[in-house]
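re: ur question from earlier - yeah i can do the single chain one, its not a big deal. heres the input i used so u can compare w yours
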Amino acid sequence: MSEQGLKVRLAKLGRKTATALVTGGVVAIAGVAVWHGSGILADRAAAVERPVATAPLAVSVAQINLEDSYKVERRYTGQIEAPQSANLSFEQGGTVAQILVDEGDVVKKGQVLAKLDARLLAADLERLKASKRALLAQLELASLVDQRQAQLKKKGFASNQVADQARLSMSELSARLAEADAGILAAQIRLEKAQIQAPFDGIINTRLVDPGNTIGGGQAVLSLIESDKPVFRVGVAPKLANRLSIGDGMAVTIGDTSYQTQIVGILPQIDSATRTRIVRARFKEQSRLAFGQTGEAQFVQQMSAKGAWLPLTAIEDGVRGLWTIKTVDGEDQPKVGIEAVELIYADSPRAFVRGTFADGTQYIDQGVHRVVAGQSVRIQTPAEAN
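and the output i got, formated as tokens:
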């Protein structure tokens, strides 16, 4: 190797050695700095107070009580109607002379409500009475003649034919007199029917004609409804109607007031529109309820099923459409568990459910969203609950 080549190699070797020495010095300085910084951080961490452990969350719990059945309340809407109602009219036509009542008037059975102009009927009745008086006079004369002819016949001064004529004449007059009595009775009935009488105690609902109107026989004049102990009419499910009987009690709510009624009728056919059977119940006491007012009839059914009543606040959605409740197990360190439930019947604010829980299990009845399965909790005291 030439002298010039040797110098070049020595120059390159010197540069590499210098670079290595500089790099080693930088690494050494960095290591010292890291060691010193970690010591400072450790001292600062030691100076900070450790956090206090959070106390277990207090939860409200209740106990599950299993039952063999539950009650279901059914409600059906119905309306109040009058026990009786009638459209009153005259059997025969004529001119209305008087309307003695007005809408809303309370009337008694047998009270006269309206009258026709009955002067022709009264005149006909007087004619028949006069005819009767004439027949009575003729009958009296025929009786006297019959008596005289009978006496003359005994003495031989009268024939049998004359005596028979006198006797049969009296019989004819007696028959005509009976006919006159029947005519008088018919005229009296027609005169009575020239007025409308209340068939039962009630209230005038509608007045349809006024005095002076000429009407035909059977045309409605007044509408009368019975006001004593109204009837509640309601359609119920056929299966429920089959379990009801005449005389059973039925609770009815009108507005905010509950009334007790007694079933007086169950119609045998099913309504084609509503597919229900009509039940009629009479209120047990007089009330000032308006006819046509709607209300609800309540029926309670006992259903057989094993389960428990739980508040809806204790039930939450689970996975895949299931429902769950959260239970509390353990006395010293209670922890949250999860049980699956199935809703059988919901009646706000509670539901009858069955599930994987056992009788007597403690469950969280409210605030279930605040805890998760496996979390340690403590049972809320009565003082905290208040």
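Residues 31 and 37 are 10 Å apart (CA to CA). not sure if urs matches, ping me
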